[in-house]
Amino acid sequence: MMWENRTHSSEGGEGKPFPTPIIPEYVEHHIFRALGKQPHIVIIFGGSIGTLNEFTIAYDEGKIIGVLEGTGGVADLVGGMVRALAKPTQAALFYDRDAVQLLGMCLAELARRSG
């Protein structure tokens, strides 16, 4: 594990350095999942292999997923993958090129599910 020195001061002034672990994003993600801090809505835009991983987890867990089309990467491939693999889940997928419209669709689905 890597460490870095950060400073902390409860008085708002110059603080004393203390060692802080550097936690890679993928480890932090799994810590949050273990604590039950999972999102209700996942928005996919652009992305590479890590985004693909997040998408597959959200899809498998039946989350509300918004895909911002036209942003490249995984976002532009998701629709084809879902059609090709056709795994049934409780996930709700929404696609749009307009981020505001996309978020609105996802929030409406969340409201419907929250009933």
Structure explained in plain terms:
The chain is of the alpha/beta class and 115 residues long. The chain has a domain at 39-115. It contains 4 helices and 5 strands; from the N terminus they run E-E-H-E-H-E-H-E-H. It has helices spanning 25-34, 49-60, 78-85, 99-114, and strands spanning 2-8, 16-22, 41-44, 64-68, 92-96. The strands form 2 sheets. A 3-stranded parallel β-sheet has the order 3-4-5, with helices on both faces. A two-stranded antiparallel ribbon has the order 1-2.
How would you summarize what this structure contains?
The protein is an alpha/beta fold.
Q: Count the strands?
A: 5
- Approximately how much beta-strand content do the residues carry? 15-25%
Unreliably modeled segments = none
Helix tally equals 4
Distance between the termini: 44 Å
SS content category: alpha/beta
Main sheet attributes: strand count, strand direction, barrel closure:
3 strands, parallel
Principal-axes shape call: globular
Average pLDDT: 79
Give the topology string: H per helix, E per strand.
EEHEHEHEH
Radius of gyration: 19 Å
Helix residue percentage: 40-55%
Sheet with most strands: strand arrangement: 3-4-5
